[in-house]
Design goal:
Elements lengths: L8 E5 L5 H10 L3 E6 L4 H11 L4 E4 L11 E4 L8 H9 L3 E3 H8 L10 E5 L4 H14 L6 E3 L5 H6 L7 E4 L2 H5 L8 E4 L7 H4 L2 H9 L8 E5 L3 H9 L7 E5 L8 E5 L2 E4 L11 E5 L8 H16 L4 H10 L8 E6 L2 E5 L6 H8 L5 E5 L9 H7 L3 E6 L4 H11 L5 E3 L7 H12 L5 E4 L12 H15 L2
Parallel strand pairs: 1-2, 1-4, 2-3, 4-5, 6-8, 6-9, 7-8, 9-10, 10-11, 11-12, 16-20, 17-18, 17-20, 18-19
Antiparallel strand pairs: 12-13, 13-14, 15-16
Helix pairs in contact: 5-11, 5-12, 9-10, 16-17
């Protein structure tokens, strides 16, 4: 297929989820592709062999040197902008794209009408919101898929055989940093809280990269009324004429907002005479689970869907059909009148704050790798809800100290162990502290890699420990 890439010398930075598909697509378009990768482990060698069989050049163990003759770099999103490879590229005037940028530029290359993108970013809630959005779009009879940072390659969606009417696209701050020409139909920034600051360098840079999702929006920029920083990003964005700012709120919505009224999700943005009228979309009970932060996710998804012209009935049906992924505020079991909830996905303080706000009386299981986070604000805000706390993991002392400062009356069990079996003991200790009507909540506010492979394994260990309680 003749293209702008035919004969072009392109360096793909990084193997893995994004690098391998990018290398294959570019090779198929006639580019001369060289892949560079920091690692030289067994997995990398297997991937390299697969690409070399196609005629792609692969250099393992050297991701910092710019290959001679490079005219374009397509990078894995996680590679830091400060890497020597990118410094050399800047000095040589070589542009750097991410796989999202490449996917955006390849839309319609095969002659098909490009599917519009409805884009979702934010510190927390991205995956759930994108999945809700895809469920709503499917309920409307549209051909769609949830793609991007959710783990489904945008390149595959854009260059594959399936034709889509619209795509629900999850985008990380990393991906947005490397996607300068992306222009979505409509987009949302769900929330903003400090995260990945080691990569971005500052909160300002992190927010600016998140805000890129609004650039060039055609129909709606959907923002969080409760998070002023998201509205500020809308105000700063250069959008197409006629694009609207649409807020979502857990309170009663004003004109050009979606919100909640007497147990109903309602729309005062995409209705006639929004000064006076509102459209019922769904009941709060249609949202699974109906925790406050998840209702906010549902409203954001509904806002994007309504911007695309989806009916109120499809919003309701899509939310009812949606099933959340595991380890996202998932009810595991009730044992002796105590609810046990797995929110292992709450790997930072912002996500944990939302999780703690969903319950009235909590025995909190927390701890792991703090990633530079502090916990004073989190603990101070949740102190009145805490029946007790059980701490695990390498950085549990940081949470223990915050509890001592802001919730000294809360009993704390500090488990001085980081083996995977610690979870069973943690659940047993939480059971001892809990009373009927309480919720034992795993919302660690920390990453899991000190004890577990990932947050999924951590959540599975919690669920297994709970099952052993009820055995």
């Amino acid at each position: 297929m003749p293209s702008e890439f035919t004969g072009k010398h392109v360096t793909v930075a990084g193997l893995g989820v994004s690098g391998v598909p990018a290398a294959k697509v570019l090779h198929g378009l006639g580019a001369h592709v060289t892949v560079v990768n920091d690692g030289d482990d067994e997995r990398a060698r297997t991937q390299a062999a697969e690409l070399e069989a196609l005629g792609v050049t692969v250099r393992l163990g050297d991701g910092d040197t710019l290959p001679e003759g490079t005219e374009l770099i397509v990078t894995a999103p996680g590679w830091k902008p400060t890497k020597p490879l990118f410094t050399a590229a800047a000095q040589a005037g070589v542009p750097v794209w991410g796989d999202v940028e490449l996917a955006w530029r390849l839309r319609g290359l095969d002659g098909r009408k490009p599917a519009p993108w409805l884009a979702v970013t934010g510190t927390n809630g991205k995956t759930t919101t994108v999945q809700m959005l895809a469920s709503i779009l499917k309920a409307a009879g549209l051909r769609t898929a949830a793609v991007g940072n959710i783990g489904v390659s945008l390149l595959d969606a854009v260059t594959g055989d399936t034709e889509y009417d619209v795509l629900a696209v999850e985008l990380s701050s990393y991906q947005l940093h490397w996607a300068p020409s992306l222009r979505a139909h409509s987009a949302t920034v769900l929330n903003l809280a400090p995260d990945h600051l080691d990569w971005h360098g500052s909160m300002e840079a992190y927010a600016a990269d998140k805000g890129r999702v609004y650039e060039g929006n055609r129909v709606a920029c959907v923002y969080n009324v409760a998070d002023r920083a998201t509205e500020d990003l809308v105000r700063a964005a250069d959008v197409e004429e006629g694009c609207r700012a649409v807020g979502f709120t857990l309170g009663t919505p004003g004109p050009s907002q979606l919100g909640v009224v007497e147990g109903l999700l309602v729309d005062r943005a995409f209705v006639e005479d929004r000064q006076k009228n509102a459209q019922e979309l769904a009941e709060v009970s249609d949202v699974n689970p109906p925790a406050p932060h998840n209702i906010a996710n549902a409203l954001a998804a509904a806002g994007l869907a309504r911007a695309f012209g989806v009916s109120a009935a499809a919003v309701r049906d899509g939310l009812r059909a949606f099933t959340p992924d595991a380890h996202r505020i998932a009810h595991v079991a009730d044992v002796d009148g105590v609810a046990y909830v797995d929110d292992s996905k709450a790997t930072n303080t912002h996500a944990t704050e939302a999780s703690l706000a969903a319950y009235e009386s909590i025995v909190w299981i927390a701890g792991g790798l703090a990633k530079g986070a502090t916990f004073d604000e989190l603990v101070a805000g949740a102190a009145k809800r805490l029946r007790g706390a059980v701490l695990i993991g390498a950085d549990r002392a940081l949470i223990r100290e915050a509890l001592a400062r802001h919730a000294p009356e809360v009993p704390v069990v500090d488990l001085d162990r980081t083996d995977t079996g610690a979870m069973l003991q943690a659940v047993q200790e939480a059971r001892r502290l809990a009373r009927p009507g309480d919720t034992v909540l795993l919302a660690p506010a920390c990453a899991s890699m000190d004890m577990f492979t990932n947050y999924n394994q951590r959540g599975d260990a919690f669920a297994q420990a709970v099952r052993e309680l009820g055995a």
